Structures are given as C-alpha cells and as structure tokens.
Amino acid sequence: MSNDDANAKPTPEFSIVIGLVSTEDADRILETLTELRRQTPARSYEVLIGDRRQDAVSARIRSEFPEALVISAPADTALPVLRTLALERARGETAALRSLANAASMLEDKPALLQLRMLHQLETTSGNTVVLGLSPTAVPLSPAPKSASGDDESGSSSSG
Questions:
Q1: 134: which residues sit within 8 A by CB, 6+ positions away?
Q2: DSSP assignment of the chain, as one string?
Q3: If the chain, 160 residues long, is cut into consecutive pieces of 10 residues, what is the mean pLDDT of each piece?
Q4: Sign (positive/negative) of CA torsion 93, 84, 49, 26?
Q5: Is the pTM higher than 0.70?
Q6: Would you state the pLDDT for residue 151?
Q7: 86-116 as b/e, with b when 16 or more CB fall inside 10 Å?
Q8: What is the pairing mode between strands 45-51 and 68-72?
Q9: Exposure string (b/e) for 16-27, b if CB count within 10 Å is 16 or more?
Q10: Which residues contact 84 (CB under 8 A, 6 or more apart)?
C-alpha cells in the first residue's frame, strides 16, 4: 500500500454543494457548517463551497472549517455555474449520480454543449481518437448523380 493510499479519504456517500454568492449567504453557511460538525453523522459526507466572493467569510470558512472544500471562482460567476464547479469536484456517490443526471438534462436541452465539452477535452488531452457522425437533423449531402444507363439508386431501370 502506497503512502497516498493510506492517506486517501474514503468515498463519501453524498456531497453537500453550497454556493457562496452574497452577504446574506454568509451567516446561513457558517451556521450550516457548525451544525454539520456538531452532528455525529450516520453517513459519510463532504462539503463543497463554490465561492465567488473570496472575502473575509471565505477566509473564515477556510480556517475554521478545513473539512469544507472552498472552490474559488471569478466574482461574476453565476450561481448555477458555481454549483456545477463544485459538483465536478464532488466525490460522493449521490453527487456523482446527480451530476450525471444534470449533465444529461442540460445536453438534452442544449446539444451543442456536448460539442463544446468534446472540443475542450480534445484541447486538454493528447492521443485522442475522434469518431464523427451525422445528427438526424444534419443537412444531407446532395444525392449521387444517376448513371448513364438510367438506373436509379435502387438498381431498377427507369421506363419511358
């Protein structure tokens, strides 16, 4: 067993994802973290906080609640994006399933997202094999010209 294996935390059963976006959130988040710590959990969990504030509250969470993972994001990051950033880092079994379900829903609503994700993946990795296919809504290619014998594509002759 390597040293990394010995120090690895077990996979939590679920992940708690929080977005820190406004001053109104601060007291509620600190209270939530305090109460979570007081409880003796029957199930294992992790806490992930998407943070676009990066202020004194963020620093307090980092120092007083080291068990919470604070994920910094630019100040103009929307709340759904903050949650997505946190879900992408979540290790909990339930969070992973919810993340997949959310991704499937988003792709169903906006299929172009899959193409953007694929381009991002291609950009960040090497040794990729890409297989492209046509979507059912793709514009078809023009048909092949008919042969000089008058046979159409099905192989039957045209009669005149």
A1: none
A2: --HHHHHPPPPPSEEEEEEE-SHHHHHHHHHHHHHHHHS--SS-EEEEEEES--SHHHHHHHHH-TTEEEEE--TT--HHHHHHHHHHH---HHHHHHHHHHHHHHHHH-THHHHHHHHHHHHH-SS--------TTSPPPPPPPPPTT-B-TTSPBP--
A3: 60 84 84 87 84 92 94 90 85 67 76 77 74 63 63 50
A4: negative
A5: no
A6: 54
A7: bbeebebeebeebbeeebeeeeeeeeeeeee
A8: parallel
A9: bbbbbbeeebbe
A10: 102
Q: In what order do the strands lie in the sheet with 14-20?
A: 14-20, 45-51, 68-72
* β-strand partners of 151: 157
Query: Do 33 and 26 meet the contact criterion of CB atoms below 8 Å apart?
Result: no
Residues 6+ positions from 75 with CB-CB distance below 8 Å: 52, 53, 54
| CATH 3.90.1010.20 for domain 11-120 | no
Assess contact for 53 and 20: CB atoms under 8 A. Answer: yes
| Residue-range domain boundaries for the chain | 11-120
CA dist 119 and 131 (Å) reads 13
Amino acid letter for position 11: T
Query: Do 50 and 18 contact (CB within 8 A), yes or no?
Result: yes
